[in-house]
Amino acid sequence: MEYSPEIFLAHLAQTTPFPFLIPIERAEGIYLYEPGGKHYIDLISGVGVTNIGHRHPKVVQAIKDQVDKHLHVMVYGEYIQSTPNLLAQKLTSLLPQSLNSCYFVNSGTEANEGALKLAKRATGRTGIISCKKSYHGSTHGSLSVSGNETKKSAFRPLLPDVRFIEFGNTDHLSMINDKTACVIMETIQGDAGVRIPTKAYMKALRKKCHETGTLLILDEIQCGMGRTGSLFAFEQFDIVPDILTIGKAFGGGLPIGAFIADQKWMKLLTHDPMLGHITTFGGNPVCCASALATLQVLQEENVVAQVEAKGKLFEKYLTHPSIKEIRRIGLFFAIDFESEEKVKRIVGNALAMGAICFWFLSCPNSFRIAPPLTITEDEIKFSCEILLAAIEQS
Ligand code: PMP
Hints:
Elements: H1 5-11, E1 26-28, E2 31-33, E3 39-42, H2 45-48, H3 57-69, H4 82-93, E4 101-105, H5 108-123, E5 127-131, H6 140-144, H7 149-152, E6 162-165, E7 180-186, H8 199-212, E8 215-219, E9 243-246, E10 257-261, H9 263-266, H10 285-300, H11 307-317, E11 325-329, E12 332-336, H12 340-352, E13 355-356, E14 358-359, E15 366-369, H13 377-392
Parallel strand pairs: 3-13, 5-6, 5-7, 7-8, 8-9
Antiparallel strand pairs: 1-2, 2-3, 4-10, 9-10, 11-12, 12-15, 14-15
Helix pairs in contact: 3-10, 4-10, 11-13, 12-13
The protein binds 4'-deoxy-4'-aminopyridoxal-5'-phosphate.
């Protein structure tokens, strides 16, 4: 009864006509378990969330400790609570000096909403530049700056004054001018199928934003928290954003996001108008405890330093004549095939064989692999055997 697909389909709002529909009773490390014990390797980390695996013991313990102290006690920004305090201290200690003030929210899309509002408030401008094929979230502001037209047209009117440039095209940077409040960009485009910009492009982008007084928002909701082989992807491009947004893996399995900027801008949200951005649950102490423990695990267990070698191992094992291209940074892969139909067959075959991979929102000919960063070498080898068999039978 509790796993009834009838209840699921009748009483839980659906997002697609073809949900995975597998019943999950528990999860541990890289594995998801059905009630009868059948298990799957989660090669997508719950779509970018469980970077240190499901239910990491230190995360579970931190959550329990916090639950024993208190849950929600007040809306964001009023009381001094230990876990948001310690999380903000830890997070800012891992970021460049200018990213010194964290605003905790409940999700990725909310982090981007806050960042966009902050950029408008800080510059007094309204223009926003984003990228084609980008994904920044599903609420109105984030949807407005997302670059997938088919997901947007039914919901217009959206935010005005948003223009789209091609990700990675230096010529298009000329569209950034003194009317632009901000550029919002994923450091690595995730749902466009793992698109990796050049360092030269990112530096030119940074320069153009500086020259025009435009704030650069980097969305690392999917590519942050060690996924690319550095704690934050922007570190690999020798640039620093004005506002950084994070979510997903940041919470270690509980819902939390953040936009992070210099306090000189953040404090603008306290006046003209006062309460310029508010949230009831943002910075929830249990979510902050989980996020803090996750950051500690990423650091103390030397997780991030091993990402590149593990990524290379996947590449070594994953060779098949029908693979058209593999785009990879760290442990974030898009694997291209000749058609969407073939990709669907491969994902279905892999599921039947016990490995979960998934598609992208804006790249139909590819599927994604983004396993927990804690995956072992043996688990990588075994996962690749399943994937190759799934490809072979497609
Ligand atoms: N930005 C990026 C780059 C994302 O990948 C996502 C989620 N896929 C979001 C924003 C939105 O995050 P959320 O679903 O938590 O609102």
